[in-house]
Amino acid sequence: MSYEPPTPPQELPADVVDTLNDYSPELLRHVARYTEELAEYHEREARLAENEGNNQIKEQPEDRPDDVPSKATITVKEINDNRYYYWQWRDGEKIRSKYKGPVGPEN
Questions:
Q1: Does 5 fall in a domain?
Q2: From its phi and psi, is residue 101 left (phi > 0), alpha (psi between -120 and 50) or beta?
Q3: Please, what is the Cα angle at 107 between 51 and 42, to 5 degrees?
Q4: Distance, first Cα to last Cα, the chain
Q5: Could you give the number of structural domains in the chain?
Q6: Where is the composition biased (Basic and acidic residues) (predicted)?
Q7: Cα–Cα distance, 21 to 25 (Å, whole number)
């Protein structure tokens, strides 16, 4: 680990960099977790919006539970350095999720 402060990405606005530089290590870790989850949410939203516009019929997995709608997609979420599959779908303005299982070592 370097003793020099990290160089922020050029895409990051200066006011955000200045704000983050004033945060404690603990608060920065909270921000990091939140931004990772927020990025996943935005990516999921984009995928769901793309799938809503796609009228192609796709093969449905046979192991889809009865309480998971047919429009649900499978996503991977990392929690505590472990990866898990989740069913996800849009329910009005909300994104719903249901645990499917761990990602196997072959994936």
A1: no
A2: left
A3: 35
A4: 30
A5: 1
A6: 59-69
A7: 10
Residue 107, pLDDT above cutoff 60: no
State the Cα torsion 14-16-17-22 to the nearest 10°. 130
What whole-number distance in Å separates Cα of residue 91 and Cα of residue 96?
Answer: 6
Q: Is residue 21 predicted with pLDDT exceeding 90?
A: yes
What is the residue range of 51's domain?
14-102
Q: Please state, as a whole number, how many other Cβ atoms lie within 10 Å of the Cβ of residue 24.
A: 8
Q: What is the pTM of this model?
A: 0.47
Residue 97 lies in a domain: yes
pLDDT band at 30 (very low <50, low <70, confident <90, very high): very high
Rounded Cα distance, 6 and 12, in Å: 13
4 inside domain:
no
- What pLDDT sits at residue 106? 62
> Is residue 98 domain-resident?
yes
pLDDT tens-digit readout, 55-96: 444 455 667 878 888 888 888 888 888 889 898 988 888 888
